[in-house]
Structures are given as C-alpha cells and as structure tokens.
Design a protein that fits this description.
Elements lengths: L3 E12 L2 E12 L3 E5 L6 H8 L7 E6 L2 E2 L5 H4 L2 E4 L11 H10 L5 H14 L15 H13 L5 E5 L7 H16 L3 E6 L2 H7 L2 E6 L2 E6 L1 H6 L5 E6 L5 H8 L4 E7 L2 E6 L5 H11 L7 E4 L3 H9 L8
Parallel strand pairs: 3-8, 3-9, 6-7, 7-8
Antiparallel strand pairs: 1-2, 1-4, 4-5, 9-10, 11-13, 11-14, 12-13
Bound molecules: adenosine-5'-diphosphate (ADP) and magnesium ion.
C-alpha cells in the first residue's frame, strides 16, 4: 500500500455566511496524479490554500507527509511545489532570475541551485527566453514560467491549481505532458481543473467536488460505472415527430430521448446494439438523417447525473 502524502479530514471553511468547504475529506497517496474536478466556485482553490496553511479554516485536520500542517512547518513546505491559479512572478526579474528567486527560498547552495534552475528551464522549454522579462512572454510561456518557479526545487508533492486556464492548445498539451513527466520522475501531483477532458487525460484518481463537497471519487473508469449512462447516441436530423420519438423511447436500454438544434440525443444504459436499433427505427419511419455518432460517458455525464447540472455550463 502506497504511503499517504496528504490527508484532509472534515475540512470546513466559511467566508462569512458562505460555506466554501463543507466537511471535505481527501486522502492522496504517493505516486498519484490526483485530480480535483469541479466547476468554478466549487472550492478547489480554497482547498489548496487551506492545505498550504495560506488560509485559516474553521474546522478539520490536515496532514502532509504524515505531519500536521502549519504556516511555519518549513520542512514540509520545502517538499511542496505550488503552482497557483493566478500567475505569481516578479515583473522586474527575468525568467532566469524569477526561477532562481523561488528556488532560492528552499535551496541555499549556489551550485546546487544553479543546476536546479537550469533543469527547470529545460523542463519547461524556456531556454531561449531566459533573459526575457515576464511582460514580454505570451500567456502560454508565462504559465510555463509559473510552473518552473514552482518545481525548480524538485519537490515531492506538486500542486497545480488550474494551470491551463486561458492557455493555447499547444502550450496546454505541453503543460499536461510536463505534469505526467514530473509524476514519472517520482512526484505526487494534485491537479485542479474544471476541464473534465484534462482530468480524464492525466489523473489516476479523481475527486469530483461541488459546492465544497466531494460528490464522487475514483478512477475515471470507476466514476463512469457509478452512473446509469453507458452510451449517448447523437443523430443529426432536420426534425422529428413525437411518434418516432416515442418509438425510440420504447427501445430496450433507452432512458432519455431529446431533440434540439437539429440533433437527436438518445441516452442508453447497458445493451450492445443500441445504435443499430435506433437507426432501425429511423429507417422504418423513412426519416433522413445526417451524421451519427455514439459516445461513451464522460465525466460531464457523471457530474450531470449526480448533481443535475452540467459541468460544461460553468465555464
Ligand atoms: P474554485 O477554485 O473551485 O473556483 P474557490 O475556492 O475559489 O472555488 O471558491 C469557493 C467559493 O468561495 C466560491 O463561492 C467563492 O465565491 C467563495 N470565495 C472564494 N474566496 C473568497 C473570499 N476571499 N471571500 C469570500 N468568498 C470567497
Ligand atoms: Mg480556483
């Protein structure tokens, strides 16, 4: 059994009347890429800030590396790399100097630090920008600098809070691959996002949070098994009458049929030949159709079934 790296028990955080975290429990093991997935305002950043003792909380207990976390627990903090949601670098320092500054908070030996800074620059591929000031960097490069500042001291636990928001697709992929590489190199990762595709792509275990509560947890496969949906069939049709709709609704395994914007969406639970049966009904009724696709459940479906609202809508 892998060692527990982070243990959050019954964490409650209020901002005046608002309960931002409502008895949250999380346990993160060594070697995981642990995803915190939730819409904006669900409490991801609050969790991270409490975890790091940057924010006082009302109730609960937090342990990191088996030690109780506190603002002055330097030995624990030294082994954590934090990449905040809002880029936090110094405008008056160059790329190199910024990374050197943050690394210097933990590594005092000059030669060792120089090597760490070089490794970080190479890792985020910012070599040709080392003398640039942050204001001259594009959004994606700035994000990469922010990451380099957080990881240069080679921490065992790396926490990234929405590191890909407002990043171009190419930089986004680089960032996601980089996170997986850090994990392969031995770091435990906590990754927060409201993008379900990213979390699916890189996380070994996922907690879905909503309104400060953990509503589900597991691998992506486990999460998808928790819900009724196993397949969503979408068919482009110009229009559809109630008779056809009812026939499709009556098919085995079909539990929801909806038509909007020229798309018929049929949700199925179990069964192997749903698509064929649905197309059979359309042909039998002489209905013309355009593109047809069948999709496996996504984490959005998991969120939707558990909470009744779509994760996507929160963007
Ligand atoms: P997320 O990171 O998932 O988007 P946050 O942790 O930032 O969510 O916020 C959780 C909830 O707490 C939201 O409703 C947000 O408006 C509220 N909140 C966050 N920070 C503050 C603050 N400093 N003062 C008051 N309310 C806050
Ligand atoms: Mg946040």
């Amino acid at each position: 059994m892998a060692e527990t790296i982070v243990k959050i028990e019954n964490l409650v955080k209020r901002y005046k009347d608002l309960i931002a975290l409502d008895h949250l429990n999380l346990e993160i093991k060594q070697g995981e890429v642990y995803g915190l997935l939730g819409p904006n305002g669900s409490g991801k950043s609050t969790t991270i800030n409490c975890l790091l003792s940057l924010l006082a909380f009302d109730k609960g207990n937090i342990e990191i590396f088996g030690e109780k976390m506190s603002p002055d627990n330097y030995s624990v903090k030294k082994n954590i790399g934090i990449i905040m949601q809002n880029v936090a670098v110094f405008d008056e320092l160059t790329v190199y100097e910024n990374i050197d500054y943050f690394c210097g908070l933990y590594i005092k030996d000059k030669e060792e630090r120089r090597k760490c800074v070089e490794d970080a620059i190479a890792f985020v591929e910012l070599d040709e920008f080392r003398k640039f000031y942050p204001k001259k960097l594009s959004g994606g490069l700035l994000r990469r600098l922010n990451i380099a500042c957080g990881i240069a001291h080679k921490p065992e636990l790396i926490i990234l809070d929405e590191p890909t928001v407002a990043v171009d697709p190419q930089s986004r992929n680089k960032i996601l691959e980089g996170i997986q590489q850090l994990n392969r190199n031995g770091a435990t990762i906590i990754y927060t996002s409201h993008y379900m595709e990213e979390v699916e792509q890189i996380c070994t275990r996922i907690a879905i949070i909503d309104k400060g509560k953990k509503i589900a947890e597991g691998t992506k496969e486990e999460l998808k098994k928790m819900i009724r949906n196993t397949e969503t069939v979408t068919i482009e049709v110009i229009d559809i009458d109630d008779d056809v709709k009812n026939k499709i609704s009556g098919l085995p395994h079909v539990y929801s049929v909806e038509f909007s914007d020229g798309k018929l969406e049929v949700k199925c639970s179990d069964g192997k030949h749903n698509l064929i049966r649905i197309l059979g009904v359309l042909q039998e009724c002489g209905l013309n159709f355009g593109r047809v696709y069948s999709e496996l459940p996504t984490l959005n479906d998991v969120f939707l079934e558990i909470t009744g609202t779509a994760l996507r809508d929160s963007e």
